[in-house]
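DM between two lab members

TW: hey, do you still have the Methyltransferase entry open?
JB: yeah, one sec
JB: this one, 193 aa:
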Amino acid sequence: MKAVKVELRIIVVVVALIVAVSGAAKSHFTDAAISKGNTVTTAEFDIAISKDGKRFYNELKLFDLSNLLPGENRNVTFLVKNRGTVTMNRLTLTLNVRNYEVKMSPAEKAVDSTPEKGELGKWLVLKTISVNGRTIPVNRTLDELSGKTISLPVKLKPGEKAEVRMTLELPAKAGNECQTDGIDVTLRLDASQ
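TW: and the structure you got?
JB:
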């Protein structure tokens, strides 16, 4: 029994020493750093158009050309602005054209076999597009361009604007078949990073 008591004392002393040593091992310096409220947001990508550069819109009627005569050129000028927070590295223009008859004049009736459909888009030519003075020759009719994408030579940083000028021409050889016709043109500008 004495041997068991001695062994028990030895175990108690060993356990006490282990507890004492482990307590001493935890008494070193410690510190912690915490980072709270970390966030991730996305950029804003926003393009807008204007007639005069004073106010910019996502949707705006830019032109209304009337009484165009064969051999005449007309310019359409508007501004594009990057209202976002990211540089726009690519800008494209797509024209969608719908031809219609405004009315059928007697001179047109004599040569027009399609009184329900206008022919102006077959004749009206987009000669050039200029962006900030840099001109791109196009020389295609609006019917040929309808639904096609035209790349514009411009990059826009946040807050920057570009002036776009389109020169339209009704060739001198345009005949009575497009007299009193009209076209409805939708311009779509697409920007990408």
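TW: got it. The mean pLDDT is 87. The chain has one domain: 47-192.
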